[in-house]
Amino acid sequence: MSAIVKYPNRILKSRCSPVTIVGEEEKEILQKMAKTMYLNRGVGLAAPQLGIRKQLAVVDIGDNKLTKLINPVVVESEGTETMEEGCLSIPNVYIKIKRAKRIKVKSFDENGREFNLEAADLLARAILHEIDHLKGRLIIDYINPIKRFLILRKNT
Ligand code: ZN
């Protein structure tokens, strides 16, 4: 079992490298990420949360549809919605975040094939949250430093 990297570990703030060749190692990491996400009842997990600086993420919003993302990029977005969000790396912290309501994402699958994915609502939110992780962006980066300080002092 892999432990989830917690804030303020520096790895969570780093930009992840794109995967150039999808091999066995990447497949294994994605497998491990999915297992860790399910065990922790999360709706998504990004590689840096397991201490790996690669653009890999998994998402499952509870409908047993596991999506594995490699080098995901948002190519279109539409509408906005504000909802409270948490993160497995920052326990007990929930922050209202405005995100796109519908997105179109380009990604590679674990066989190295490119695919397009359309997502809305919670699925879109979960994917955007994970893509943020791959860029070193966390939910607490959406609020101002004073509020962030107060929230983190209270909860972590
Ligand atoms: Zn997170």
Strand and helix layout:
Layout: H1 24-39, E1 44-46, E2 56-59, E3 67-87, E4 90-108, E5 114-120, H2 121-134, H3 145-155
Antiparallel strand pairs: 1-2, 2-3, 3-4, 4-5
This protein binds zinc ion.
Biggest beta sheet attributes:
5 strands, antiparallel
What's the structural domain tally? Answer: 1
Q: Round the mean pLDDT to the nearest integer and report it.
A: 95
Give the helix/strand class. Answer: alpha+beta
Listed once per kind, the bound small molecules are: zinc ion
What overall form do the CA principal axes indicate? globular
Helical content class: 25-40%
What's the helix count? 3
Strand content: 25-35%
CATH homologous superfamily classification: Peptide deformylase
* Rg, alpha carbons: 15 Å
How would you write the strand order of the largest sheet?
1-2-3-4-5
The assigned CATH architecture is Alpha-Beta Complex
The CATH class turns out to be: Alpha Beta
The SSE order reads HEEEEEHH
Terminal Cα span = 23 Å
Task: Count the beta strands.
Answer: 5
Q: Oligomer, anyone?
A: single chain
Could you list the spans in which at least 5 consecutive residues all have pLDDT below 50? none
Tell me what the structure shows:
It is built from 3 helices and 5 strands. It has 156 residues and is an alpha+beta fold. The chain has a single domain (10-155), classed as Alpha-Beta Complex (Peptide Deformylase). The chain has a 5-stranded antiparallel sheet with strand order 1-2-3-4-5. A hairpin with a 5-residue loop joins β4 (90-108) and β5 (114-120). The chain starts with 23 loop residues before the first helix and ends with a helix. Zinc ion (ZN) is lined by residues 87-89, 129, 133. Residues 87-89, 129, 133 line the site of zinc ion.
